[in-house]
Specification:
Length: about 325
């Protein structure tokens, strides 16, 4: 091969490598978000981060716990208002609960709410069959849909790429912010409201990444809220509306850490552990084979720097 031919060959290979790298970088991670949006407001903040992240392809949003149709209508409106109405919204089986849904009225207003929604479990399993080994399930509510999917087709459920879960309390309970007096671990909401389904998930064999209370008690203070709500974008305006309907002062962004982890895993470093979910809803750290990668601590400052820049963007 002549010197000129060799030069052109090297240039051709370099172009292939560069174009291939660009293609690889452009492939978005497929996710499904399973949420109990409508009670606490952190679910909405998680959904906002997802739709503001081009690295993620949101295949669908499924709702769980209580009045799942009302929750689905909240998602309908949010997605419609921010220009993402193409994302499918599915409802899980309704369950009895006395928990108030502070943001119910949001889903009843506007022009985006659908009269009914498809079945969340059927959708989840169908998507896994379509994209085996490629889907990350982001679970940020009680685990009714997860348990039902395992019961219906455990083999298909195991073909998830991974589950990223907000749930559990391993070494720190509610109110233990890392600088306050220690609070022992306790049953956490998402686990406690369907213990049997949580046990099925931890025994499923699917790669499981857990963001428990230990790393997710992220307080969004007044300065951060003022900055975000003052941006005047479609996404931040919807967050402002839902925040005011929520009716409390300082939200704790438990759920957004799952989306942040999918995007920037260094924000919540994980440790392999064996976790047993007991009959009372405790997530017990015990000896044994690793069944979960658990984030026991996170950097709140770095999380909010990332979150606010990403969600506030025009």
């Amino acid at each position: 091969m002549s010197g000129v031919a060799r030069m052109w060959w090297i240039l051709f290979v370099a172009l292939l490598l560069v174009s291939g790298w660009g293609w690889a970088q452009s492939v978005a991670e497929r996710i499904i978000i399973d949420t109990d949006i409508g009670d606490d407001v952190d679910d909405a903040f998680a959904l906002a981060l997802a739709v503001r992240s081009p690295e993620l392809q949101v295949l669908g949003v499924t709702t769980t716990f209580g009045d799942t149709e009302a929750r689905a209508k909240i998602v309908d409106r949010f997605l419609g208002e921010v220009g993402r109405a193409e994302i499918p919204v599915l409802a899980g089986k309704a369950t009895g609960t006395k928990n108030p849904m502070s943001q119910r009225r949001y889903g009843e207003g506007g022009h985006f709410a659908k009269s009914s929604h498809g079945d969340a479990v059927e959708f989840l399993l169908a998507q896994i069959r379509k994209y085996p080994g490629e889907i990350t399930l982001i679970a940020i509510g009680p685990l009714m849909n997860v348990g039902a999917a395992v019961d219906k087709d455990a083999a298909t459920f195991r073909r998830l790429k991974r589950v990223v879960l907000m749930g559990g309390s391993v070494r720190r309970g509610y109110g233990d912010l890392g600088y306050t007096a220690p609070v022992p671990p306790m049953p956490e909401w998402n686990i406690l409201n369907d213990v049997a389904s949580a046990q099925k998930l931890f025994a499923s064999g699917v790669p499981l990444f857990v963001m428990p209370l230990d790393s997710t008690q992220l307080k969004m203070d007044e300065v951060k809220r003022a900055f975000l709500f003052g941006q005047g974008t479609a996404v931040t305006d919807q967050l402002a509306v839902l925040y005011h309907l929520w009716g409390q002062e300082t939200p704790t962004l438990f759920d957004p850490m799952t989306i942040a982890f999918a995007l920037r895993p260094e924000l919540c470093p994980v440790t392999g552990m064996h976790i047993r979910v007991d009959e009372k809803g405790f997530t017990r750290e015990e000896p044994g084979a690793v069944n979960a990668q658990v984030c026991l601590d996170s950097n709140a400052e770095e999380f909010f720097r990332f979150y606010l820049k990403r969600v506030a963007g025009s």
